[in-house]
């Protein structure tokens, strides 16, 4: 796969986003939050991500080292995306692939990541 533009959002539709992202490089992390939420994540430079609606409905959750800014909808509670930085300082958006409109999850093959050990 290559980078493509996708649209998506939370369950109730309050939070919406547009992102240019490569879905051939997804991960399934086993850290405490990703495991419980069943997140499949894909990453894009922050400039390739735009929140198109619901900015005032974002709520943020930080845990552990407070490096990842988990964004969730105040109405339905779904985490559609998060923000953070790569080790080199590049600002990134982590998109919950399950929140991309019309995604066929059978075509997504996430790489396991042992986030629980960090």
TrEMBL record:
<dbReference type="GO" id="GO:0046872">
    <property type="term" value="F:metal ion binding"/>
</dbReference>
<keyword id="KW-0862">Zinc</keyword>
<dbReference type="GO" id="GO:0016846">
    <property type="term" value="F:carbon-sulfur lyase activity"/>
</dbReference>
<dbReference type="InterPro" id="IPR052355">
    <property type="entry name" value="CENP-V-like"/>
</dbReference>
<comment type="similarity">
    <text>Belongs to the Gfa family.</text>
</comment>
<dbReference type="InterPro" id="IPR006913">
    <property type="entry name" value="CENP-V/GFA"/>
</dbReference>
<protein>
    <submittedName>
        <fullName>Aldehyde-activating protein</fullName>
    </submittedName>
</protein>
<keyword id="KW-0479">Metal-binding</keyword>
<dbReference type="Pfam" id="PF04828">
    <property type="entry name" value="GFA"/>
</dbReference>
<feature type="domain" description="CENP-V/GFA">
    <location>
        <begin position="6"/>
        <end position="118"/>
    </location>
</feature>
<dbReference type="InterPro" id="IPR011057">
    <property type="entry name" value="Mss4-like_sf"/>
</dbReference>
């Amino acid at each position: 796969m290559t980078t493509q533009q996708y649209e998506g959002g939370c369950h109730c539709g309050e939070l919406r986003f547009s992102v240019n992202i490569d879905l051939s490089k997804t991960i399934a992390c086993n850290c405490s939050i990703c495991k419980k939420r069943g997140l499949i994540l894909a990453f894009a430079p922050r400039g390739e991500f735009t929140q198109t609606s619901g900015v005032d409905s974002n709520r943020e959750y930080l845990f552990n080292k407070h490096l990842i800014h988990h964004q969730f909808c105040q109405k339905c509670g779904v985490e559609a995306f998060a923000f953070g930085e790569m080790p080199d300082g590049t600002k990134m958006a982590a998109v919950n692939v399950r929140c991309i409109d019309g995604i066929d999850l059978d075509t997504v093959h996430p790489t396991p990541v042992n986030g629980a050990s960090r």
